[in-house]
Write the structure tokens for this entry.
Amino acid sequence: MTKTNKDTKPWKDLESTEEGLINTSNKQGYMLAEPDDLMKEFAEFCAKDGRVGADIGCAYGVATLHVLQQMEKKKVQGKIIAVDPSKKHIAKLQELAATQGLDKQLETRCAIYPQDTTFKPSTIDAILLSRILHFLTGKQIEEVFKVVFKALKPGGKIYISTITPYIACLVEFVDEYEANLKRFLKKQNKQQTWPGEIGDLQKYLKKSSQKNQNPNFFHAMSPAELQQALKKTGFQVELAEFSTRPYPDNVQYEHNGTHQEDAILIAKKPTPVRLME
Ligand SMILES: C[S@@+](CC[C@H](N)C(=O)[O-])C[C@H]1O[C@@H](n2cnc3c(N)ncnc32)[C@H](O)[C@@H]1O
């Protein structure tokens, strides 16, 4: 059932089918109504003098607004670049930032990353990819990692949050995924097709409220294959773990006695080693 979200500021005018999740305008899933722990960590890293962050797939800007608030609170110079293909998302973010007097440190790009827009080499301190990688194939993710690596300054960080196969609507996919993952990590799969690519998501969404709010392609991932791909690109992985959050009942799923709906990774572009003369 679709209802207008009346109580979740600043998203009060926007649609929300699930508590805590705001519908995107372009059927690209949901935006979190509140910044999560990874967004907060990203914001803390960005809110230092002179730092430049980028929020790829920002939607209406939950993470970007949090970064701007932290920059203002700490009175630091810096910038956040928010990227999303939806004009509605970007317009709302600009409006909210302006209303809160936070727009001076905001740059927006209405674009698909990395096809329509990229960043100059070694110019960005931190890049957030929060819940967007599930729209991309493994090959596209490998490409995105290369482009992000190039854009980051040495010592810069990539922050990733994505959706695992351990969610209620994918229960029937878990065995297939785990068999694929074993082959993938042992490199027995010659084409190296990523283990969680699903071509026909609607097949699994028959009863779910997520139906009609997502494209038909979905890529579920665990920390393992993302960590492998990050290392292959040259990143030093600092964190790679399963996580959870208060998802609605129809998303939550207890797997092996724990909740593992999300995969969270933080990785660093190494700083060059300085040789003694
Ligand atoms: C599921 S929402 C996540 C929003 C927010 N980052 C969060 O974690 O709550 C995905 C967002 O990514 C955007 N998006 C999808 N593919 C993208 C791409 N290649 N480049 C930039 N944005 C993209 C969509 O328009 C949508 O707003």
Remarks:
- The domain at 17-268 is CATH 3.40.50.150 (Rossmann fold).
- Helices lie at 37-46, 62-73, 87-99, 138-151, 174-185, 223-233.
